[in-house]
Amino acid sequence: DLSQEHNLSISGGTEKLQYVLSGSFLDQKGLLRHGTDKFQRYTLNSKITANITDWLKVTLNSKWTREDFQRPTYLTSSFFHNLARKWPVHPAYDPNGFPMDEGEIEQMENGGEQNSQKDYYTNQLHVVIEPIKNWRINLEGSVRTTTQYQHWEVLPVHAYDVNGDPYYTVWDMGYGSYSAGSSRVDEYSWKENYYTTNIYSDYFKQFDNGHYFKVMAGFNAELYKKGGLTGFGTDLITPSVPELNTTQDNKNAYNSASELAIAGFFERINYNYKERYLLEANLRYDGSSRFIGDKRWGLFPSFSVGWNISREEFFKPLSNIIGTLKLRGSWGQLGNNETEIGRAH
User: Fold this and answer.
1) What local confidence, expressed as pLDDT, does residue 173 receive?
2) Which of 107, 236, 323, 326 is 20 to 30 Å from 284 by CA-CA measure?
């Protein structure tokens, strides 16, 4: 089957206001003849930048993406494993024209579908304030929301005897087998919220004698929340309405939830002299909600020094042969949020 993708972008503006709007659509079909297998993606993006005054600039980014995926529930890695063992010596249809039980065509076409839909929403706001020349204050905030809904079912499938009469057959995916005539419905939904904040300011000064200084200090925070709900049931009243409400047995539901918050203060100093001698020093004070008491916060310094030899006067005769030659050494400590606040050199 053919696949298609379409894109549209519009941009424009004035000296004070600029904008970019874009969108796309992607439609991809699967390679198999039996059952519905397709993926569709939609996107909408926008970026608006406003130079409100000479010292105030605001940028807003918005993004939305939707992904729809549909496939036969039986289309798993085990299906391809079984197919590789049987093709090309196993016929797809019997002499009566019905799908062979071992060919798994019936499972692909009538054994149920899996439908998944994901939505991604992102909004980012960036404000830049420059009270005086070379001094900037940055205010950044971002919200990203991800949602997913997934539904899949196992429906009774038939095989046919030599007389062409149907009978229920086993639904077997290798890792999950269902007895003849059995049915099941699963639904899963989850939502993830991710919030970030960055507030920092920097100032730099370039002197005529070759000295350059830059200082930066700021704060950043992140909050991550996730929750999900899963439900399932077996023995459908009718395969034509495969919903949780129409299952009769083994109904169950459970949920999951998690949350993580991190925050940190940071500062950085940069210095160079005629881009020959380089120095950078950093200091971070980070905390994580994964730890308690005196383990929650940690102080992490780092620094680096460099010598740009290619900027020296004595190196000029070699500049046509070697464009850049620099020596650099560094040392630092970093926190590990995955296990404990530790040190990495």
Assistant:
1) 63
2) 326
Specify whether the CB–CB gap between 262 and 276 falls below 8 A: no
Is there a contact between 19 and 13 (Cβ–Cβ < 8 Å)?
Answer: yes
94/158 Cα distance (integer angstroms): 14
The span from the CA of 254 to the CA of 188, in Å, is 10
- Convert 263-296 to b/e letters by CB count within 10 Å (16 or more is b): bbbbebebebeeebebebebebbbbbeeeeeeee
Q: Which amino acid is at 303?
A: F
pLDDT level of residue 226 (50, 70, 90 thresholds): very high
Model pLDDT for residues 97-156, shown as the tens digit of each residue: 898 887 788 888 999 999 999 999 999 999 999 999 999 999 999 999 999 999 999 999
Q: Which amino acid is at 316?
A: K
Residue type, 4: Q
Q: Calculate the average pLDDT of the chain.
A: 90
Tokens linked to 157? 């499938």
Using CA atoms, how far apart are residues 118 and 169, in angstroms rounded to an integer?
A: 34
| Strands lying side by side in the sheet with 17-29 | 4-13, 17-29, 38-53, 56-72, 113-132, 135-154, 184-206, 211-236, 247-273, 277-288, 297-308, 326-332
Cis-peptide into 317, omega within 30 deg: no
- Count Cβ atoms within 10 A of the Cβ of residue 198 and give its class: 0-12 exposed, 13-18 middle, 19 or more buried: middle
0.85 surpassed by pTM:
no
* Residue recorded with tokens 């196992």: 154
Average pLDDT over residues 276-304: 93
